[in-house]
Amino acid sequence: MVGEGTVNARTLSEKVWDAHVVRPGTEPGEPDLLYVDLHLVHEVTSPQAFDGLRVAGRRVRRPDLTIATEDHNTPTDSLTTIAEPVSRTQIEALRHNCAEFGIKAHPLGDAEQGIVHVLGPQIGLTQPGMTIVCGDSHTATHGAFGSLAFGIGTSEVEHVLATQTLPQARPRTMAVTVDGELGPGVTAKDLVLSLISQVGTGAGIGHVVEYRGPAIEALSMEGRMTIANMSIEWGAKAGMIAPDDTTFSYVDGRQYAPTGKDWEAALDYWRSLPTDADATYDAEVHLDAPSLRPFVTWGTNPGQGVSLDGVVPDPSSFGDVGSRTAAERALAYMALEPGTRMYDVPVDVVFLGSCTNGRLEDLRAAANVLRGRRVAKSVRMLVVPGSAAVRLQAEAEGLHKVFEDAGAEWRFAGCSMCLGMNPDTLDPGQRAASTSNRNFEGRQGRGGRTHLVSPPVAAATAVAGHFAAPADLN
Amino acid sequence: MDKVTVHTGTALPVRRSDVDTDQIIPAVFLKRITKTGFEDGLFRAWRDNDPNFPLEKPEFAGASILIAGRQFGTGSSREHAVWALRDWGMRAVIAPSFGDIFRGNALKEGLVPVTLPADAVETLWSIVEANPATKVTVDVTTREVRVGAQSWPFPLDDFARTRLLEGLDDIALTLRADGVIADFEASRASYLPAVR
Predict the structure, then answer these.
(1) Which of A225, A323, A391, B66 is the most buried if burial means most Cβ atoms within 10 Å?
(2) Strands A66-69 and A38-41: what pairing?
(3) Does the distance separating the beta carbons of A33 and B160 come in below 8 Å?
């Protein structure tokens, strides 16, 4: 795809960008002013932004393009009580701010409450070709629909609330082309973890990435969301996937999906979005899907990973000093010895959930492994649906019975153990297999040791008591 | 935001790469609804658990320029990471590269993100470790870092530089384009979703 290109040939991200420029930058370095189609708000990164509005006497420009939910602080064992006073105060601040500024909110206990990045797609607010922002780095999730979606800081949250726009410098473009088909038992999560381990955690900085190729096209929307979600874990500003019939059928019929003539007009726009045949990217990466296997991280950043059938690497095997030092630090924190087979590493906790892998398809994949099996006695397994609606759907399918019969905990929706901000945390020294997105030091609780895996590997690991793939259980 | 022009101070060497924002401020410290007082959470786990971490060593007391390894500020979008550094007294961070969101957040708060090549960072680490009292200057007007007779230029686009030098409020600037925004809104397609 790299070539001369014609003047008007554009990539997916450039088309969406161009469609949202309110005012182009004129001086060198001056950013474009971009319009924001949807602003997602949660309790952690918004209170100071609302305070800023109050101090300046400003209003929310477009409450109708803004929606809020509670997810980071919420407990997953109660739909009514937030026991921790500081968490409760932050959530009450969001409720107060939404009431004062006229923003629709889905509080704890509401039928649509859930992780902010599960909510948008679920109710059909996330559609192709939009610009979507949120004070949360995993906003890239919505890029799975061919939207330009990225995380912002609290100052920018305030800016969007006040103006519905953001000044943004045009990012560079990058294509990640995944050729071939994923093998049996290899998931979108394994794909993106493998990618990050190959390119490194900084490879995407300054770029909007487009994931493409047969292996991406073959994925469900849930799988695409898993991949787009982790774009930030290798530094990318956003990750996008061209909308196609899979996308359109997912959106069709949801609460906020267009209907009638609007649906037809929207389809025309959505079908115009895929990258032109002779468009070029600033950078390209290729990945071979058939070569990928179930994957697990061993270190403290998402790029430090290895195939599940591999071993903990020797830091001296890393060529550059930075990677070697980082690996030494990581192994000390993770209490792992070089050469240890990942299969031989026992875990204390298995966490199934998060905006990366907390959707219905993820729960089904794990339930398929757990059906008729038991979680090992030494393991605590938490199953946390990404939203209240996912929980209800899963219960309608009887998945909760599968989890409970296996000895796992079936909990209410929220960010839960993905980040140590609510009551679900690891104890110091505990080791977890987690379907979330970050294995940073202390991410799941101070002193906790996190290994990132796919939902099927998480379930198989829960049964085995040590890292395992479903195929290893037979 | 206060104006930022030239800052001279002592520096804190953090010889680590991929310092993610969960390390800069762990999630348990994000529950405050105010915009100040985050210094207690700054690098909390490393301060408590790692005797070699330099933040609270007496020789680095009062340091206002943090010098770190590549990919500083990756991960979570939490602007609290910038607030924690600022509340501690940091005015600039020097590193070979930054997470995009952190860099944007830092510029909003007047914490200068200074990108220098890895070898320059290595040199600065050595100088500061050898003599923690060394004065380091981050000059936004000339876009350079100076230590004694040595200097290193750093990239900073004109727009970001002007905002720092003049301490401009982004929202007020954007609201000057209110009419243009309204025109754009009037042309938005009817199929785009609105929250009911």
Answers:
(1) A225
(2) parallel
(3) no
Distance CA A195, CA A282 (A): 18
Record the tokens describing residue A169, joined without a space: 């410098």
Measured in whole angstroms, the distance separating CA A379 from the mean position of its chain's CA atoms is: 25
Reported as a single tens digit per residue, the pLDDT across A300-325 is 999 999 999 999 999 999 988 889 99
Q: Which residues contact A18 (CB under 8 A, 6 or more apart)?
A: A10
CB A160 within 8 A of CB A133: yes
A144 touching B (Cβ < 8 Å)? no
Output the 3-class SS for chain B. Answer: CCCCCEEEECEEEECCCCCEHHHHCCHHHHHCCCCCCHHHHCCHHHHHHCCCCHHHCHHHCCCCEEEECCCECECCCCCHHHHHHHHHCCCEEEECCECHHHHHHHHHHCCEEEECCHHHHHHHHHHHHHCCCCCEEEECCCCEEEECCEEEECCCCHHHHHHHHHCCCHHHHHHCCHHHHHHHHHCCCCCCCCCC
| Burial of B89: CB neighbours in 10 Å, binned 0-12, 13-18, 19+ | middle
Whole-model pTM? 0.96
Whether the Cβ atoms of residue B73 and residue B24 lie closer than 8 Å to each other = yes
Name the CA dihedral angle for A165, A166, A172, A176, rounded to a multiple of 10 degrees.
-70
**By C-alpha distance, which of B65, B45, B52 is closest to B4?**
B65
Closest Cα in chain A, distance from residue B186 (Å): 11
Of A61, A72, A326, Cβ closest to residue B18: A326
Residues 6+ apart with CB under 8 A from A251: A124, A126, A127, A128, A145, A257
Cβ <8 Å between B17 and A442: no
CB-based contact (8 Å) between B77 and chain A?
A: yes
Contacts of B27 in chain A (CB under 8 A): 72, 419-421, 443
Which residues, in sequence order, are CB contacts of A417 under 8 Å at separation 6+? A349, A351, A353, A382, A384, A424, A425, A426, A432, A434, A436, A444, A445
Q: Each residue of A388-418: pLDDT tens digit? A: 999 999 999 999 999 999 999 999 999 999 9
Strands B65-68 and B92-95: parallel
B167 lies within 8 A of chain A by CB: no
Contact A29, B159 (CB under 8 A): yes
Give the amino acid at A54. Answer: R
